[in-house]
Amino acid sequence: MKGIEIYAAIAYIILGPILGGLMDGLDRVITARLQGRIGPPLLQPFYDLRKLLTRRIAPVNRLQMPLIASHLVFAALTGVLFFYGSDILLIVFVLTLASVFLVLAAYSTGSPYSTIGAERELLLMTAYEPMVIIALVGLYGVAKSFNFYAILGSKMPAYLYLPGIYLGIVFVLEMKLRKSPFDISTSHHAHQELVMGLTADMGGPALALVELAHWYESVYLFALVLLFFSSSWIAAILGLVFTYLAIILLDNATARVKWELALSFAWIVALVAGAGNLIPFYLISRGTP
Amino acid sequence: MSSIERSPWLIHYDASSCNGCDIEVLACLTPVYDAERFGCIVTGDPKQADIFLVTGSVNHLNAPVLRNIYEQMPEPKAVVAIGACAYTGGVFSECYNVSGGVASTIPVDVYVPGCAAKPESILDGVVRAAMILKEKEKASRADRKAAARSSSRRGARRAARADRKKDAQ
Fold first, then answer.
1. Which residues of A touch B45 (CB under 8 A)?
2. Which of A25, A222, A230, B142 could form a disulfide with A42 if both were Cys (CB 3.0 to 4.6 A apart)?
3. How many CB atoms within 10 Å of residue B144?
4. Distance from CA of A265 to the nearest CA of B (A)
5. What percent helix, strand, coil does chain A show, rounded to 5?
6. Angle formed by the axes of helices A112-143 and A276-287, to 10°?
């Protein structure tokens, strides 16, 4: 069993960005079609990445690039640990560490836009972190383990036991993938409010590394969603496709919220859907041996 | 195809335009014209942009801003001057405060005619600018290779030998 885990971790390092880039490309095509446009080619994210890597630009300061590189390393490490079968609790905090490096990189530039973007990213992290912990506790309740393979191998239909927590995780995904209505720290494509927010003053290779880290992150996050649909192959595929499409639809159908609303909304969802799901689940599962 | 030709990111600056051309620039992003199918993204950050779209005439107040945005963009870069005002100053060219078109401040690669310029011709200008960027990238890559060759010791020796041969001839 240990052998498979090492191969999965290595496969994630190599295939993670490819899968993440394809997901991003498909997202842009679907978004364009939803808006009645033709949209870019499927491989557009890879063209963008290649171009960004070849751009020559003087870095804003000497600190920015090491911080962004650390962001990429820890974002990739999150998934590596995840597929290696480490403790999910640890993994969640490694991803938080990766986000903190990105926030530090944004603060280091001194641009007012990236400073406000960094502040908003910190608020978003505060907003989604409780829901993530609740989700982990819920998954532990279902599978009695904090290990990816143990939860996957338990074959429990977690989406039936934890529908509220699944809903909460979709909200977390909206925030982590920087989708509307929670794309307040920075955003992709042509939507701009704070110039580029968190990624303002990051040009050329620096932005390329941020994009790469984002692809690693999104693959890891969808693997986390997979844990809710581990009962069968059909459930897994349907669950992942549904989640992916729901996130794109929400992105296109909603407007950006203010950070106060994002924070309170996320906490209300965590409290009502998350805790409201967890408490009855515990009461019921204590009754059954 | 080179990578820059497939993802030209744009930044748009309105240098005292009447907003006619600006509305047409924005129209390029709408479903009808859909600039994203060429890989274009309008970014607000000059450090992430490849092509600089400028509308309107340049005056003494906005010339430093124009220069600042241009200088922040990474090399190689292309400038597209959109509309009659960006060409010569247009109807405002005789005004006491107008210093002329965009070329009075920064070098321009492509001029898009019109008052206001049509979205089709703006898209054409962007695609032409992307082609110019590709050429610029090729030239700068050759320059860098030559510079690297002359800076290395072996390259310098080879260049000296070539010079001597030329002298002998």
1. 195-196, 199-203
2. A25
3. 11
4. 29
5. 75, 0, 20
6. 10
User: Do the chains contact at A196 and B45, CB–CB below 8 Å?
Assistant: yes
**Cβ atoms < 10 Å from Cβ of A288:** 5
Omega before A205 within 30 of 0, i.e. cis: no
Got the DSSP string for B128-169?
A: HHHHHHHHHHHHHHHHHHHHHHHHSHHHHHHHHHHHHHHHH-
Residues 6+ apart with CB under 8 A from B112: B80, B81, B82, B83, B86, B121, B122, B124, B125
What was the pLDDT predicted at B79?
95
- Within a 10 A sphere around the Cβ of A43, how many other Cβ atoms? 14
Report the percentage of chain A scoring pLDDT > 90: 32
What average pLDDT score do residues A197-214 get? 87
Closest CB to A190: pick one of B29, B74, B137.
B29
Q: How far is CA A100 from CA A181, A203, B59, in A?
A: 22, 19, 43
pLDDT tens-digit map of A262-289: 899 889 988 888 888 888 888 887 765 4
Specify the amino acid at residue A64: Q
- Rounded to whole angstroms, the Cα distance separating B2 from B8 reads 11
CA separation for the pair B145, B150 (Å, rounded): 9
| Domains recognised in chain B with CATH numbers | 3-144 (3.40.50.12280)
Q: Which is nearest to A86 in space by CA: A170, A19, A151?
A: A151
Query: Distance between CA atoms of A93 and A74, rounded to whole angstroms?
Result: 10
**Closest CA relative to residue A173, chosen from A239, A121, A243, A108:** A243
Sequence-distant (≥ 6) Cβ neighbours of residue A277 within 8 angstroms: A138, A162, A163, A164, A165
Interchain contact B137–A (C-beta under 8 A): yes
Cβ proximity of B15 and B56 under 8 Å: yes
Asked whether B60 and B97 are in contact (CB, 8 A), the reply is yes
Question: How sure is the predictor about A148, in pLDDT bands with cuts at 50, 70 and 90?
Answer: confident
> What DSSP letter does each residue of A177-200 carry, written as one string?
TT-TTS--S--STT--SSTTGGGT
Phi, psi of A271 (to 5 degrees): -75, -50
- Cβ contact (<8 Å) for B50 and A51? yes
Q: Is the Cα torsion angle A34, A35, A41, A47 positive or negative in sign?
A: negative
Contact B133, B50 (CB under 8 A): yes
